[in-house]
Amino acid sequence: MAQQYPQNDYYPMPEPPPRRRFGVLSVVCALILVLSVAVILNETLLRLKDIQVKGVYIISQEEAKKAAGLDRTVSYFTVSEKKVAEGINSHHYLTFERMEKRFPDTLTVYVKERVPVARVQQMGTNYYLDDQGMVLEKSYLRVKSGSPDDMVVVTGLKPKELRVGHTIVAGSSEHMKAYTALFEELELQGWLSQISELNITDPESIYVVTRDGYSARIGDISSLRAKIGTVRAVVAKLREMGKTGGMLEASTPGEAIYTPPVP
Predict the structure, then answer these.
(1) Residues 124, 252: one domain?
(2) Strands (DSSP E) along the chain, which ranges?
């Protein structure tokens, strides 16, 4: 029979043996190993190697990639579409459209490049705008009539602010509505290259001037498609007849009254 010892200060109870923690440590080590492998794969094997920006013509691939934050090492899983879009949109010549990834190392970013289509003059400075009124560049050089740089001159916008990288602040919202609507319709009908000037001094009485001297008053921007279409057809007919220049009253859709130039 085992001898019993009373529990007191002289005969303390024996301590229990320490619990084994090998199972927990094994799980922790396994997780660390898996995470390490994942990091190595992500940073090496899954690094993006084929990155392309589609839709750039004036801006170089290198400049577009830099704007998107893709000019450095980027991994397949960590690349952020939101950050790429923010970077692209921060460049005043570019707008983000979409992004495509192809496993394991290919990324294609689709953008739209802003193109200067209009020139606004203020205090001896030429400002170059896209069809939405974004100011892309400015120049203090005088532009000669008939030069390749002689794009559509827009008058009457009464700009309050003209800053490169920002949309022009026109005299009123009606001026900007007229501006964007006119460029959209002229581009749609393929007639933008025929225009030398758009006068939007009065958004209710807009004038369109062709490069060969025809001036057409189209009124406001209502029924713009019909008005521009009518001006195109009448100008084409006048050219066939050998007429040069003159004035068209085309503020009523489908109608145009021609007044020849004063001799």
Answers:
(1) yes
(2) 50-54, 94-102, 106-113, 118-122, 125-129, 135-139, 152-155, 195-199, 206-210, 214-219, 246-249, 257-259
134 with 106, same domain? no
For the chain, the domain total comes to 2
Residues in contact with 245: Cβ distance below 8 Å, sequence separation at least 6, in sequence order: 212, 213, 214, 215, 260, 261
Instruction: Select the more confidently predicted residue: 110 or 142.
Output: 110
| In-domain check, residue 6 | no
Question: Which residue range(s) make up the domain with 156?
Answer: 118-259
The model's pLDDT over 209-261, given as tens digits with 9 standing for 90+, comes to 999 999 999 999 999 999 999 999 999 999 999 998 999 999 999 999 999 99
User: Closest by alpha carbon to 105, among 62, 63, 74, 64?
Assistant: 74
End-to-end CA distance of the chain: give it in Å, rounded: 140
Residues 134 and 99 in one domain: no
CA 90 remoteness from chain centre: 9
pLDDT score, position 140: 80
Instruction: Report whether pLDDT(147) > 60.
Output: no
The predicted model scores a pTM of 0.77
Spatial contact of 126 and 134, defined as CB atoms under 8 Å apart:
no
Q: Give a three-class secondary structure readout of 55-78.
A: CCCCCCHHHHHHHHCCCCCCECCC
